[in-house]
Design goal:
Strand order of the largest sheet of chain B: 1-2
Number of helices of chain B: 12
Shape of chain A: globular
Radius of gyration of chain A: 20 Å
Oligomer: heterodimer
Distance between the termini of chain A: 15 Å
Number of helices of chain A: 15
Strand order of the largest sheet of chain A: 1-2
Number of strands of chain B: 2
Structural class of chain B: mainly alpha
Shape of chain B: globular
Helix content of chain B: over 70%
Radius of gyration of chain B: 19 Å
Structural class of chain A: mainly alpha
Number of strands of chain A: 2
Largest sheet of chain A: 2 strands, antiparallel
Largest interface: A-B, 42 and 44 residues
């Protein structure tokens, strides 16, 4: 199959996938659909996270912080500035707020690589967590803040219950946001900027030699990555209907790392696949047993030991093996 | 009144020092950032509380010593199992796998604690009550807090002597500096990495055990010490004993005065200090560049 044929097949597959996703609203029961929406939100976050891990070679263990900033921006506007509780203001606000926080934290973090980068991102996300818990008169402490249904383009959805809103129009809104975010990320990593990031990851010294300002590029990647998390957090706050500090806790950030690895961090779609799978896995583990952490933990350990490239990675290598078997026969 | 804050700060520092020293040994010698370190702390706390409770008829001293030893042994044993099963294959793997597998271990250990001891809190204040209070500069102060500081100082001294003066310690430092070279020189890598891991784990277990007479053993108790130990290691510098001492003193005093004077902002101030130190000195106070 030639390269052109490959592009055609891929294009048709993507279109079919999008149509399937759009139709999902009428196929899945409301409960499953809302769970899927949670997965999509985490998927957006995973895309942002993987810009750092896969393309820049930086493993953040504190991306929950930017997710939390996005979610809390929505909730705080809802609580203190109800007049501005409109989707057209909320989402850009969430992205902008997380960009600011990511810019400040990133400035410190990108001075380090490898393990110190991970420790620092983790510690800084715990700073956000501590602030959210301690400043209870502003943030509601560990009780969190409610995030009601916003108005979208003047339409207020008055009198609509949340599950109805979520399994109705909001699904398509979220899906559109997800698809746009995915397309932008795809374009970004295939742009010269994305290639420059890869060169930084592969060889810092050489990248510096060919004129790439390493730290500045890392910083920019960090901010973009944080903005994706902020967008995901903002979108998620409506799905969850309630925002609590747990999303800033490093354990949540660890789950994001897990999702990405589960799906496979070496592929573009990996984090998204992992996020959706993880959302379902975790929910069924929690509802099935009191010891869900044991299940998640054992799965994680097994995954790292046996399937380090994740689900999409394993599938790709199986496909490659099948193909090579086929050619050998010929 | 100020002396109480300073003493409380030293008391916080003691736990931090033990925890971060264990973390730092595992990180420095083996290059593994052990996210399950806080769970080893929690294991120590539950074990000590349980032993002190069981030995309540034999007297608090027996219970206390038994509890601390049991906490260390249990943490070391779990460390041994962890190293042999899941950490060993990770030495040559990229960082993300190391972090993930220890994160998995953390989840598993937390639930194993829940399985073993149930979800409720364990109280064991016997040793604390037994030691009573002493007079310091006209104020009363719990003797147990001073005891913890003494134990910690003794541990720190032992570790320093071990690292600086014994052949094993020197070999450990050689591994920390250059793994491949150390292996080429014929250092028994397998035995030493297990030793280092068990040593680091037992320090976390001891810290957990020491804490239990003053506050109950709860699920998730190891999370905060873990984060604090990270901060200590980051600001003190990786693999530096001096750094661990100074780092825990800074963090401990900040916490103590923070709790006293600005409770809402105690954690943020701590992070602010850490960030300022790191912007000025990215490798930490005593870290190698």
């Amino acid at each position: 199959m030639g390269i052109k044929g490959g592009i055609w097949v891929r294009g048709v597959a993507i279109c079919a996938g999008v149509v399937l996703l759009v139709l999902l609203r009428w196929v899945l029961p409301s409960y499953q659909l809302i769970l899927f929406e949670t997965g999509l939100c985490f998927g957006i976050m995973g895309l942002g996270f993987n810009l750092l891990l896969r393309h820049t070679g930086l493993l953040s263990f504190g991306h929950g912080a930017y997710f939390a900033v996005g979610a809390y921006t929505v909730a705080i506007i809802g609580r203190y500035l109800p007049g501005l509780y409109r989707m057209e203001i909320l989402l850009p606000g969430a992205v902008a707020a997380s960009a600011v926080v990511a810019a400040i934290f990133g400035f410190v973090c990108v001075r380090h690589t490898r393990i110190f980068f991970s420790i620092l991102t983790l510690a800084l996300s715990m700073l956000v967590f501590a602030l959210l818990v301690k400043l209870y008169y502003l943030t509601g402490g560990s009780d969190g803040i409610r995030a009601p249904i916003p108005s979208i383009l003047g339409h207020s959805f008055q009198g609509m219950r949340r599950p109805q809103f979520l399994s109705g129009f909001y699904y398509h809104f979220l899906l559109a946001a997800f698809l746009v975010a995915t397309a932008l990320m795809y374009a970004l990593i295939h742009s010269p900027f994305g290639k420059a990031l890869q060169s930084v990851r592969d060889n810092e010294v050489r990248a510096e030699m060919i004129g790439i300002r390493v730290r500045q590029f890392r910083w920019m990647a960090f901010v973009i990555s944080g903005m994706y998390c902020g967008l995901a957090g903002g979108l998620w706050s409506f799905v969850n209907g309630h925002v609590t500090p747990e999303v800033a806790h490093w354990v949540f950030s660890g789950e994001v790392v897990y999702m990405t690895l589960l799906g496979g961090f070496k592929t573009f779609a990996g984090p998204v696949v992992g996020a959706v799978l993880f959302t379902f896995l975790k929910l069924y583990a929690i509802s099935g047993t009191e010891y869900w952490m044991l299940i998640i933990g054992v799965t994680l350990i097994g995954l790292v030991l046996l399937l380090p490239s994740g689900i999409t990675g394993a599938m790709a290598s199986w496909a490659a093996r099948l193909r090579s078997l086929g050619t050998r026969k010929i | 009144m100020g002396i109480v804050y300073v003493l409380n700060g030293l008391y916080f520092s003691a736990f931090l020092f033990l925890t971060s020293l264990g973390l730092s040994i595992i990180l420095g010698v083996m290059g593994i950032l052990n996210l399950a370190h806080g769970s080893l702390f929690a294991l120590g706390a539950f074990m000590a509380a349980w032993v002190i409770g069981v030995c309540v008829n034999a007297g608090p001293t027996v219970g206390m010593i038994g509890g601390f030893v049991a906490a260390m042994l249990l943490a070391a044993a779990v460390g041994f199992v962890l190293e042999n099963t899941i950490i060993r294959p990770m030495y040559r793997r990229p960082l993300e796998y190391q972090l993930l597998i220890t994160f998995g271990a953390l989840l598993v250990i937390e639930d194993l604690i829940k399985l073993t001891w149930g979800g409720e809190a364990y109280y064991a204040s016997g040793p604390f009550d037994m030691m009573g209070r002493v007079n310091i500069l006209g104020g009363e102060y719990p003797a147990y807090f001073l005891f913890v500081m003494g134990v910690t100082a003794a541990c720190g001294l032992c570790i320093w002597l071990f690292m600086a003066r014994t052949k094993l310690g020197i070999m450990l430092r050689a591994i920390a500096m250059d793994r491949d070279m150390a292996e080429a020189m014929g250092i028994p890598m397998r035995k030493l990495t297990i030793l280092a891991f068990m040593l680091g784990a037992s320090l976390a277990g001891l810290a957990g055990g020491l804490m239990v007479p003053t506050s109950p053993a709860l699920l998730g108790i190891g999370m905060e010490p873990l984060i604090m130990a990270f901060i200590v290691v980051v600001i003190g510098g990786l693999g530096s004993l001096k750094g661990a001492v100074l780092g825990s003193l800074i963090v401990g005093q900040t916490r103590s005065f923070g709790v006293g004077f600005f409770p809402e902002l105690e954690m943020p101030v701590l992070f602010l200090i850490a960030v300022l130190i790191l912007v000025a000195r990215p490798q930490g106070l005593f870290g190698r560049a």
